[in-house]
């Protein structure tokens, strides 16, 4: 040490002195990174958990066992649909609780059964006219308030004025439960009905069919067009200003907010071409424009991964450019293209914003039977139900979300499966 | 509906034409065998089929897009004098009634007899039209395919023709993206120009009051219809800012951990799991924000003695931030992985720890790419619709308090356009003006971001 400032620490000393602090900083940094990932995953878990716990109970529904007398007087033989089925439900309830006399109490009593109960009876009679005149015990859907009580979503301790179910009703319900006349059964209505204002009668079949028709249109338009565009850009187009413009356009369209596509659909398809509002066909057209960039980009990547030797070999044995592409390159690239298409379809299935713009938010009770009939789609149905004030719609919304997520998981799993099974690494 | 039926019919006829064409080509080959043909017989068949099917398809498309408008205008023209329709509103109202009656929705016993007559006319004309269309298509298909079938000869360059047609189809498909952009710009621009004729553009851009309810009667109180969009922009900014406050650090740190620290196994599990967040439909996030996060924040706020709106910007922003995390993550991950290993090795060689290398070498090197990715994420946040529609409010408050309700551009577009609309009220047109703004802003952000990212990539290539 020839330095004159002997007392000063050496470089190594400084390094060693700081080492502990630096290592702590290192561990802290690493922990923050891990924490970031864990917090995202935690949120994901919370999201799924909250939806599953909220929605699971919607798959079961309360039913009420009533002794219905299918009296001849109430029936109209010429027109079975016109019978007084409501009266029969009321009659059965009245018989069970003969002590109820006042008008307001009667109203409360009749409110225990769903308005859909009468319709169920009508269906029974139409299916089998021989039951007219007999008395049968029938399980009928109960009102959604009762349903909520049975599922434990209603607090009995809340003051009566703030409850939807009154004290008398609670007493009747306890009576019915004791007699074994109230039961939770599997909720078939949820899978077989269209939308309804009554939660216990609302189902997702209408929305699911709407989604199905919309996606069929989307698939049949976007897959061929997307693949064709990708083939042209990747295999035929020469690099020039025009193809540059197309490429920039595709990349930008992929990032345009989906609601803007809805505006396009509204202005062009509805107002200019006069196509029907709320129709799956228009929804399909809009979603096609929206998913095209995804499919084009995925298809191009897939085409790029086919090695040039394949093309050269085909050209070498005398195939034309078109034959090379369609007979040799395309079949090899197809699995990747299909994977991209499935992912695009999954995104289209979950999309709702552009469909709001073209009127697919209407309240539609009937299950759509075609591409031009008014329809709604699953995500929009979720949006509509989420807006409904009834407590029972919360669990139905969650249940619809579970179904939607189920579809999405299946589609994405199919995409992953295809990628692993068919995609070749060159 | 007749269109699917016609499509099937065209398909069958084309198949038939294919078969006929291919057979004729084989026959014409004669003694020389197939090698005397210019192309293989399939190509003659394909060409015949294309000639048969394409013109017919075109006709069907024209019918599909224009038939309804044409029929409506024809019928309306006939009854217009007897209905005494003066204003455009009345005409469009009558047209709507007509459409409803035709579709069988409006069972109006006391409906206007003229309209009823018109609806019957419409249905009659439509039936005639569909029959005529069918006949025309059959004739057209026979004529075009016969024309080609006659010309089939060994010298005909069938393959080249087919390839030309396919090539034209490919080009057409690839230009669709350009037409889509053009369509978006034109449709939004047209309505916006009409809007700016009613409301001065400066009022729209700089006005501080947003209340798009228009007075229907002249003496109505409280519905002034003011279109100052500043509160709407401010709300969008606020929610996007909150979202980025969540997404940027969490996404970036996750990306750093995955790229620099995580082992192969952890990465293989964590990355797909995080990408699930991107696959969850936005309506699900909206539901979660509105029914779980917002009440939780509200009760937490009341616990702390704060007044929290039930549609607070905070709830919508937080959930939106989570939605964008995978987006930030995947771009940052890309960008960090693109930083050359040599830079890291140099830093390690100087004795830096991993975190020092990341903070002082990797991040600065990757910064342009990360900034580009963040810009893309911001544009995603601005354009996000369902979360804010469900969780943010409608009231256009000009505030920076995240606990209050604010509204956003997308929320306003949805509320202005969902439901019944009249197409010349400034209320409806305002939605298109907002849409134009949204499109322009996101486009600008995207272009800048893509440019930055590309420049950055080139730097290390």
SSE topology:
The complex is a heterodimer of chains A (426) and B (461).
Chain A: H1 11-55, E1 60-69, H2 85-96, H3 103-110, H4 116-127, E2 135-141, H5 144-150, H6 167-178, E3 182-186, H7 189-192, H8 205-236, H9 241-253, H10 258-272, H11 280-304, H12 308-316, H13 321-350, H14 353-357, H15 378-387, H16 391-422
Antiparallel strand pairs in A: 1-2, 1-3
Chain B: H1 3-29, H2 41-83, H3 88-103, H4 113-151, H5 158-198, H6 201-206, E1 210-211, E2 226-227, H7 230-261, H8 264-279, H9 282-303, H10 313-338, H11 341-349, H12 354-383, H13 386-391, H14 409-417, H15 426-460
Antiparallel strand pairs in B: 1-2
- CATH fold descriptor of the largest domain in chain A: MetI-like fold
Oligomer: heterodimer
How are the strands ordered across the major sheet of chain B? 1-2
Q: What structural class results from the helix and strand content of chain B?
A: mainly alpha
**Helicity level of chain A:** 55-70%
Strand order of the largest sheet of chain A: 2-1-3
Largest protein interface, residues of each chain? A-B, 92 and 94 residues
Distance between the termini of chain B: 56 Å
Compute the CA-based radius of gyration of chain A: 32 Å
The shape of chain A, in one word, is flat
End-to-end CA span of chain A = 62 Å
Structural features, described:
The complex is a heterodimer of chains A (426) and B (461). Chain A is mostly helical and 426 residues long. Chain A folds into two domains: 57-187, no CATH class; 205-422, MetI-like fold (Orthogonal Bundle), CATH 1.10.3720. Chain A has helices spanning 11-55, 85-96, 103-110, 116-127, 144-150, 167-178, 189-192, 205-236, 241-253, 258-272, 280-304, 308-316, 321-350, 353-357, 378-387, 391-422; strands spanning 60-69, 135-141, 182-186. Chain A has a three-stranded antiparallel β-sheet with strand order 2-1-3. The longest helix of chain A has 45 residues, at 11-55. Chain A is flat, with a radius of gyration of 32 Å. The model of chain A has no long low-confidence stretch (mean pLDDT 88). With 461 residues, chain B is mostly helical. Chain B has two domains: 3-156, no CATH class; 226-460, MetI-like fold. Chain B has helices at 3-29, 41-83, 88-103, 113-151, 158-198, 201-206, 230-261, 264-279, 282-303, 313-338, 341-349, 354-383, 386-391, 409-417, 426-460, and strands at 210-211, 226-227. Chain B has a two-stranded antiparallel sheet. In chain B, helix 7 (230-261) crosses helix 10 (313-338) and helix 8 packs across helix 10. The longest helix of chain B has 43 residues, at 41-83. At the A-B interface, helix 1, helix 8, helix 9, helix 10 and helix 11 of A face helix 2, helix 5, helix 7, helix 8 and helix 9 of B.
